[in-house]
Design a protein that fits this description.
two-stranded antiparallel ribbon; 2 strands; Arc Repressor Mutant, subunit A; binds FE2/S2 (inorganic) cluster; 5 helices; mainly alpha
């Protein structure tokens, strides 16, 4: 059972397991950026859309939430046609 738990992927894009994230938190990561730098979780195709909240929850459960620093993130980008920009379309 414990072996199965280690193979739970928190970040599917970068194939980062729960165990890897728990280890970097034990090693002192206190921010999403810290976890990201050490594991590359959140740097995949979805840019953390799927895993960011899971990692934030793991951080919050591991420490006093007041110690957790807020992080910045950039949403995934998509190509935009220049005429859409010129017209000011939001979608
Ligand atoms: S699931 Fe982590 S970057 Fe996509």
């Amino acid at each position: 059972m414990a072996e199965q738990d280690e193979q739970v992927y928190i970040c599917r894009c970068e194939e980062v397991t729960r165990e890897e994230i728990e280890q970097v938190i034990r090693d002192g990561a206190i921010t999403l950026a810290g976890v990201k730098k050490r594991t590359h979780a959140g740097m995949g195709l979805c840019q953390g859309r799927t895993c960011r909240r899971l990692i934030a929850n793991m951080l919050a459960c591991s420490r006093d939430p007041a110690q957790i620093l807020p992080s910045t993130f950039r949403p995934p980008v998509r190509t935009v046609r220049i005429d859409e920009i010129a017209q000011g379309d939001e979608e």
